[in-house]
């Protein structure tokens, strides 16, 4: 029973990891670059919602909207005015610039908030649960988190495959040189891609704040989890990222079941196993 | 010419340091030489081979832990344990690299980071080496190096100097060799390099393992000097990757002199900003970003281009053949962009 | 009548290498002009310069009297210039229909629509949901042309549309040109197939090593003159 419970918790945790990963996957898909500060932006969102709801006492719905929209705006501006200038054939500048951003954000947060571990109290949401099967209780919070992940990914899928914007994003991912010949402004399109990813980062940060303790240095491990979920799932497939998150989450909770100290390591080992035996991932890009 | 003279003077003063430097200064020099070695290796990987790694701390920590394992558990004399640990690190780098190379580009970079995290978590499981809280080097093993603290410092200093010198000279010799030509070809265009018969995968793997060896060597030395190792310190991203990357990028990536300049700048800045706390790191990050956006060649790269300087020349230049009056008879090739078909 | 497109002394460089040495070119509204020349003559470079893919800041290029040198490609596109790129450059992640629809991303109004493009190239209807690149070469070329038409351009630049296609297929493709012309668009065709170019165009311009070596109507140019201009053979005095 304990094992079944661990699996269920792992699946739900996978929803959080899928949220972490979706933004990363989107940016790599459209622009071929990895934002090393990705995890740190998630932590920024967590501190933001904490600030709005706890420090400023805002209505949670308002806090959520403000956090998500501010992250989205920051993502657009960051891409348009800084990151666009280092994108190119050389992979080094974007890695270094985002690495520098990561260090700045972590230390900036440290300066502002101290190294204390924080968490957003979610009241009834945290304690409520329901029994799926005898002995397997599912918390309301993780369950809603998982549903959010599905909704977000479904929404991204819709945008990418059923809207004109999505057409432009996919075309830009294919051939950014030709897109301006169709009237597309690639500087703007890249920024929109990052904006979308940042909106998801905002949502992910809010759930992070509610689900676990976080501190200024928590960014890098979120980046690694996001990265692992993307690789396990397979590049180029947004739903694959959900599967990847679930596999990672289950690996972690099963590891924790053996010994609490093994949780993170178990996840890393699952990632390495996929890398060794199926480097293209579990659900690589399906031909459309 | 003047530059070579300056370099010689610097090298000689480094050789004579135990005579003119205070203990604090010697320790600073040892730290600088360690970072120089790490920076040369990261530069060799990223600046010359195109392998961007943010996980070299894996080998720093591995070198450190293997050194402690050999010295503590196996009773190997400490000075011998350093190169042995480096060799063992290189051996372990082979399967590690095989896994890491399943990824490309930026994903390779993060993959190396995951691997370093795995090493850290595994190291914390070894209770014989202190588990999560680490282990200290017993005093009697240290005293076996030399009886007086002063002579110990001198010996350790020369080990550091040897490591730093080995890193610089090693990279220089590598780049002047045929391997070096292959590396430059791979950096410029991997596809083109493959098409002329270079086994790019083997070259990249060789460089990866070589870097692991030197990085492990440096790691072993660093933790001998610190006399204590913990998983956090051994596999710290900030210490062994962030600082190293900043050093290389600010100093000048893709040049041998760059890391030397970078280490100097880094330590000067650290001296100035000693009390700044987190602002120091924020400043380093901002400078690295600024360098990437303004001139990604870094300080030395920009100076070199402007004044045509070189202390450790590695380029192969074509000189135009000249006729009797000294004017070139064949045009010197220029660096042109790739030309699309018209 | 103002020239639809005009360049005066246009130059283009790739780093230190000069590809175009002072091209004077003009085309009237509704005209079809063919640019011929050997590989490396600068034909594609010329088209890329017009569309803004190569830098032209400070030079003299005007479209319907409006100076467009140095403008970004998406702005030039919005003025009414569309390109059918060399090698088609369809988007593999988009279906045939999506490739056509993205051509209309600029939002210009005009006679061309999805229906009209399908009427012009009926072969595409059955394939509309296929990925853009899962088609034969000729069909891909039709999609590329259709994509350009969807932006309702006043000037269509066709870069080597016969490349890699069988003669019958080339003829099918070129049958579309008069229809495009009938809707009022001017067309520039860059071609290595001299015969096809002469048959389709009102005027022919020949490039050689980055310069205009010959220009005139097909009727007024002899085969010998064209060959000389194409290959740069010095005529015996």
The topology string of helices and strands of chain B comes to HHHHHHEHHHHHEHHHHH
Low-confidence stretches of chain B: 331-342
- Tell me the number of strands of chain B: 2
Low-confidence stretches of chain A: none
Strand order of the largest sheet of chain B: 1-2
Largest sheet: number of strands, sense, barrel closure of chain B: 2 strands, antiparallel
Tell me what you see in this structure.
The complex is a heterotrimer of chains A (288), B (342) and C (237). The model of chain A has no long low-confidence stretch (mean pLDDT 92). In chain A, a hairpin with a 2-residue loop joins strand 1 and strand 2. In chain A, helix 1 packs antiparallel against helix 8 and helix 10 crosses helix 11. Chain A has eleven helices and two strands, in the order αααααββαααααα. Chain A has 288 residues and is mainly alpha-helical. In chain A, strands 1-2 form a two-stranded antiparallel sheet. The longest helix of chain B is centred in the middle third of the chain and has 28 residues. The N and C termini of chain B lie far apart (46 Å). Chain C has 237 residues and is an alpha/beta fold. In chain C, the strands form two sheets. In chain C, strands 6-7-8-3-9-10 form a six-stranded mixed beta sheet, with helices on both faces. A four-stranded antiparallel beta sheet of chain C has the order 2-1-4-5, with helices on one face. In chain C, helix 3 packs parallel to helix 5. The mean pLDDT of chain C is 90. Chains in contact: A-B, A-C, B-C. Chains A and B meet through helix 4, helix 9 and helix 11 of A and helix 6, helix 13 and helix 15 of B.
Q: What does the secondary structure layout of this molecule look like, with pairings?
A:
The complex is a heterotrimer of chains A (288), B (342) and C (237).
Chain A (H helix, E strand, L loop, with lengths): L1 H30 L6 H18 L4 H22 L10 H22 L10 H4 L1 E5 L2 E4 H23 L1 H11 L11 H26 L7 H15 L4 H21 L4 H15 L11
Antiparallel strand pairs in A: 1-2
Helix pairs in contact in A: 1-6, 1-8, 1-9, 1-10, 2-3, 2-4, 2-8, 2-9, 3-8, 6-7, 6-8, 9-10, 9-11, 10-11
Chain B lengths: L1 H14 L1 H4 L2 H26 L8 H17 L4 H23 L4 H19 L11 E2 L2 H5 L5 H28 L1 H11 L1 H6 L4 H27 L1 E2 L1 H4 L2 H15 L5 H16 L5 H17 L3 H10 L35
Antiparallel strand pairs in B: 1-2
Chain C lengths: L4 E10 L2 E11 L4 E5 L6 H9 L8 E4 L2 E2 L5 H7 L1 E4 L11 H8 L10 H7 L16 H13 L5 E5 L7 H8 L1 H7 L3 E6 L2 H7 L2 E6 L2 E6 L6 H9 L6
Parallel strand pairs in C: 3-8, 3-9, 6-7, 7-8
Antiparallel strand pairs in C: 1-2, 1-4, 4-5, 9-10
Helix pairs in contact in C: 3-5
């Amino acid at each position: 029973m304990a094992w079944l419970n661990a699996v269920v918790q792992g699946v739900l945790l996978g929803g959080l990891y899928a949220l972490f990963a979706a933004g990363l996957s989107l940016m790599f898909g459209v622009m071929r670059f990895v934002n090393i500060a990705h995890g740190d932006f998630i932590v920024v969102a967590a501190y933001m919602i904490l600030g709005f709801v706890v420090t400023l006492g805002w209505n949670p719905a308002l806090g959520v909207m403000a956090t998500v929209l501010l992250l989205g705006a920051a993502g657009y501006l960051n891409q348009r005015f800084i990151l666009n200038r280092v994108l190119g054939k050389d992979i080094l500048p974007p890695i270094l610039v985002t690495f520098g951003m990561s260090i700045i954000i972590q230390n900036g947060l440290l300066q502002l908030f101290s190294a204390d571990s924080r968490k957003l109290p979610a009241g009834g949401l945290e304690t409520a649960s329901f029994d799926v099967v005898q002995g397997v209780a599912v918390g309301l919070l993780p369950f809603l988190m998982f549903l959010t992940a599905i909704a977000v990914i479904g929404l991204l899928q819709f945008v990418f495959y059923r809207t004109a914007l999505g057409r432009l994003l996919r075309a830009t991912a294919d051939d950014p040189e030709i897109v301006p010949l169709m009237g597309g402004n690639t500087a703007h399109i890249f920024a929109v891609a990052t904006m979308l990813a940042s909106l998801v980062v905002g949502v992910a940060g809010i759930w992070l704040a509610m689900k676990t303790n976080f501190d200024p240095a928590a960014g890098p491990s979120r980046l690694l989890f996001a990265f692992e979920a993307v690789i396990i799932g397979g590049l180029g497939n947004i739903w694959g990222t959900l599967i990847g998150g679930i596999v990672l989450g289950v690996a972690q909770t099963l590891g924790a079941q053996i010994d609490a100290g093994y949780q993170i390591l178990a996840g890393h080992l699952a990632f390495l196993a996929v890398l060794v035996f199926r480097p293209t991932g579990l659900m690589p890009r399906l031909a459309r | 010419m003047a530059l070579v003279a300056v370099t010689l003077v610097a090298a000689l003063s480094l050789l004579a340091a135990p005579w003119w430097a205070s203990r604090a200064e010697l320790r600073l020099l040892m730290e600088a030489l360690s970072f120089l070695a790490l920076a040369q290796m990261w530069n060799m990987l990223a600046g010359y081979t195109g392998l961007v790694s943010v996980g070299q701390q894996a080998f720093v920590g591995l070198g450190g832990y293997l050194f402690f394992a050999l010295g503590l558990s196996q009773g190997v004399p400490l000075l011998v344990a350093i190169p042995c640990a480096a060799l063992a690190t290189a051996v372990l780098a082979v399967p590690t690299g095989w896994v890491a190379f399943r990824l490309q580009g930026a994903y390779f970079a993060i993959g190396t980071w995951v691997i370093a995290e795995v090493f850290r978590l595994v190291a914390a499981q070894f209770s014989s080496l202190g588990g999560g809280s680490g282990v200290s080097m017993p005093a009697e093993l240290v005293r076996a190096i030399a009886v007086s603290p002063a002579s110990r410092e001198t010996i350790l200093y020369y080990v550091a100097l040897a490591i730093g010198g080995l890193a610089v000279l090693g990279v220089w010799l590598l780049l002047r060799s045929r391997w070096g030509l292959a590396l430059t070809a791979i950096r410029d265009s991997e596809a083109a390099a493959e098409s002329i018969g270079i086994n790019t995968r083997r070259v990249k793997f060789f460089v990866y393992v070589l870097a692991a060896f030197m990085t492990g060597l440096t790691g072993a030395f660093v933790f001998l000097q610190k006399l204590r190792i913990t998983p956090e310190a051994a596999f710290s991203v900030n210490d062994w990757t962030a600082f190293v990357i900043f050093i290389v990028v600010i100093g000048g990536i893709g040049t041998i002199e760059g890391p030397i300049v970078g280490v100097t700048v880094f330590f000067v800045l650290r001296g100035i900003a000693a009390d700044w706390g987190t602002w120091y790191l924020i400043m380093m990050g901002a400078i690295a970003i600024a360098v990437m956006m303004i001139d990604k060649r870094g300080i030395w790269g920009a100076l070199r281009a402007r004044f045509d300087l070189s202390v450790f020349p590695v380029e192969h230049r074509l000189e135009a053949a000249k006729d009797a009056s000294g004017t070139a008879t064949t045009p010197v090739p220029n660096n042109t962009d790739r030309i699309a078909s018209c | 009548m103002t020239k639809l497109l005009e360049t005066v002394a246009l130059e283009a460089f790739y780093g230190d290498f000069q590809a175009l040495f002072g091209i004077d070119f003009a085309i009237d509204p509704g005209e079809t002009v063919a640019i011929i020349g050997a590989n490396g003559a600068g034909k594609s470079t010329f088209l890329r310069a017009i569309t803004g893919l190569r830098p032209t800041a400070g030079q003299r290029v005007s479209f319907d009297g409006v100076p467009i040198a140095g403008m970004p490609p998406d702005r030039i596109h919005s003025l009414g210039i569309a390109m059918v790129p060399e090698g088609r450059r369809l988007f593999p992640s988009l279906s045939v229909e999506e490739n056509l629809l993205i051509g209309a991303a600029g939002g210009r109004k005009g006679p061309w629509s999805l229906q009209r493009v399908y009427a012009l190239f009926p072969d595409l209807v059955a394939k509309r949901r296929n990925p853009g690149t899962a088609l034969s070469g000729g069909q891909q070329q039709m999609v590329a042309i259709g994509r350009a038409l969807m932006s309702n351009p006043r000037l269509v630049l066709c870069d080597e549309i016969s490349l890699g296609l069988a003669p019958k297929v080339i003829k099918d493709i070129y049958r579309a040109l008069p229809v495009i012309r009938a809707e009022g668009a001017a067309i520039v065709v860059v071609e290595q197939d001299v015969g096809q170019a002469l048959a389709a165009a009102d005027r022919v311009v020949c490039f050689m090593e980055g310069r205009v070596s010959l220009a005139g109507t097909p009727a007024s140019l002899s085969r010998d003159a064209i060959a000389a201009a194409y290959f740069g053979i010095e005529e015996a005095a």
